[in-house]
Amino acid sequence: MTASPDLGTAQPASPDLLRSVFRQHAAGVAVITAQGDNPVGFTATSLNSVAAEPPLISFGVGTSSSSWPVIARAEHVGVHILGEHQQELAATFARRGADRFAQPTRWSTGPEGVPVLDGVLAWLVCRVVGRVRAGDHRIVVAEAVVGDPAGAGRPLLYHQGRFNALRD
Q1: How many alpha carbons lie under 13 Å from residue 138 in its C-beta half-sphere?
Q2: Which pLDDT tens digit goes with each residue over 76-97?
């Protein structure tokens, strides 16, 4: 039998409560990329597998993000699963105002013209099939077109506001 939650410390719903609760949730770290006039990308911890048939994924993106105007029009996006050795890459793509595709970021133009990052654990190029309004974000649903799951290493996690590695 587990202990009951302390309902006396419950708080009304708010943005701060949601952030505090989700700091307790360990999430995998991905970088989403797209090509506009220039390449764009951002770090995401909201990546989800939606369906196997057809192979669909989803992720959230804030409408105030500098990447949103390109993601809003993109036909294809890149989805990159980061390894524990890529904390700095994750931080670069999370930082406002950073030149995310400058050195030391290594990348190339992949299928459908999508920027594909080097050295990741796995990547997909996906065709966007929908964008759903969700408060100050949009949930993007996309179908996998091509990818590579063969990267080496262990996944990078985000927990308690920090990038972390798995422990044995």
Answers
A1: 18
A2: 999 999 999 999 999 999 999 8
